[in-house]
């Protein structure tokens, strides 16, 4: 049976390395790296994410600036806040929590963020940097997935990688990262004719679909590494609520070489990578050497 990839432990180790780097930054720059998190409206899941991000920021020794705006905030008011954060020298990273309320143009807001403070990596300039192999910011979830794969497999060159899902947040940047590692990359999506046939060839499977247990155990090639990005809330038989991934964990774990659990796999790495990106942004802004993270 598969080795379970302990995302919690990998994330804790990464956060510890970031905290070391932060201490070095503070000693050199005389201030803390700063992360501004903007939340518009009262979406309960988003509120939980923002609270966790702010707590982890403080635990890493960085300054967290939380901006909570009412759900009826106008695009212009939000853009004005982004402009102020862009101009604020104590702010190294800016994160606007998604989704934004429907009346706000998400693209316009994300494009307004200074690309060098765009620690989520969603600005088109950073998307282009990733695609062309320039230093930029890589979205936290796929970056965390790549770190787990490198820690598990070492060299990825030549491996067959199948990414299921093509979102701008996970699937597409994941495919770019695996290509950069010299994998042979296939991206499967909602219009793919036979997803199972593609997954059966894969040495690496990354599932970012958003459908509980979409990937079946008998699709997995024996020994493959399986990274499950999905976070799906389902009703359990005992009446409670539970979190499950996009992969049938029990079925896949019986044949895979390694697999991430949900929860405790990719999720914790996402937030640790946000801390990493914020430290890197701070180091780049004061022209300090970038720590190896
Ligand atoms: P999304 O809804 O934007 O994209 C889903 C993708 O799945 C689409 O590209 C679509 O083409 C593909 N898809 C849908 N139905 C399919 C089918 N039948 N066959 C093949 N492909 C199909 O979602 P997302 O933002 O990429 O997130 C995916 C999942 O990952 C969600 O469960 C989300 O909650 C989770 N997520 C987790 C983290 C984390 O930190 N662990 C971060 C982001 C997203």
Summarize the structure in words.
Keywords: Amino-acid biosynthesis, Histidine biosynthesis, Hydrolase, Methionine biosynthesis, Multifunctional enzyme, NADP, One-carbon metabolism, Oxidoreductase, Purine biosynthesis. With 293 residues, this protein is an alpha/beta fold. It folds into two domains: 29-114, Leucine Dehydrogenase, chain A, domain 1 (Rossmann fold), CATH 3.40.50; 140-268, Rossmann fold. Helices cover 42% and strands 16% of the residues. The chain contains ten helices and eleven strands. The chain has helices at 7-29, 44-59, 75-87, 106-112, 124-132, 140-153, 171-180, 195-200, 249-253, 266-285, and strands spanning 3-4, 34-40, 63-69, 93-96, 160-164, 184-188, 204-207, 225-228, 232-235, 241-244, 258-259. The strands form three sheets. Strands 1-11-8-7-5-6 form a six-stranded parallel beta sheet. The chain is globular and about 50 Å long. The model has no long low-confidence stretch (mean pLDDT 97). The structure holds nicotinamide-adenine-dinucleotide. Nicotinamide-adenine-dinucleotide binds next to helix 10.
